[in-house]
Amino acid sequence: MQRHHFTIDVEEYFQVSAFEGSVERAAWDAMPSRVQLPMLILLDLLAEHDARATFFFLGWVADRHPNLVRLVASAGHEIASHGWGHERVTTQRPHDFRDSVRTTKVLLEDLTGQAVIGYRAPSFSIAGANAWAFDILLEEGYAYDSSVFPARRLDGNGDASMRPMPHWIDRPAGHLAEFPPTILRRFGMSIPAGGGGYFRLLPFAVTRAALLDCERAGVPGTLYFHPWELDPAQPRVAAPALARFRHYTGLKRTVGRLERLLKQFEFQPIRETRIAA
Ligand SMILES: [Zn+2]
What we know:
Layout (H helix, E strand, L loop, with lengths): L2 E8 L25 H13 L5 E4 L1 H6 L1 H9 L3 E4 L12 H19 L5 E2 L12 H8 L4 E2 L21 E5 L2 E5 L4 E4 L2 E4 L3 H6 L2 H14 L4 E4 L15 H8 L5 H11 L1 E2 L10
Parallel strand pairs: 1-2, 1-10, 1-11, 2-3, 4-5, 5-7
Antiparallel strand pairs: 6-7, 8-9
Helix pairs in contact: 4-5
The protein binds zinc ion.
The site of zinc ion has 5 residues, from loops.
């Protein structure tokens, strides 16, 4: 049976890119942490359904919750990197990007004793224009990436010209495996079906159809979620209407939908998937 990828970007509710203009970085340390409880719910859900996942930790979060990283690793899940402080790669200089992916990898490896080989950029912010980031990932010892969004998104990011299925990226620094989030192709359109707000806002059937398409093609689908999506009681941030809509709508539905997903499909960490040359 084809296994898919269930991935979680481990970050606090106030660190999402949609709230960048509303919550100052300098205020992060003073904000109440909410990441632990939804992570425990996620770990329970996964254990109940015998599913193993990939957790992309922010260095910032791992530094403040080292036991959470150890707990996730000891449950048999993969620990991967979401960079340090949730800076979108489109706003970073190569030097800062390198520093962020290096520091995060070192910290996560120190905490778990296991190699960290996967990276996902905040807001899937790698595309053609900043492909230099792939070289830096290779040079820093990463083997795969999951940062390219192969469809246009609500916030204007994403690149519909990128390949939607897992593939190799050939760069001067070597070969990097790429696992884009899953999209559903219908009627000439690319519909994001891989998680986040789309998973909560669109019918469950969209995600289901996309994963079944992947199975017919013999490749894994890649889904992504966030701890704050399982935390309907999180403090509300004063942000623009679209950001609030994307962040808060459907939070109460998340757990039920994840249960359906985990019942109907099987999952393994990205590091266990080999893609054909
Ligand atoms: Zn993120």
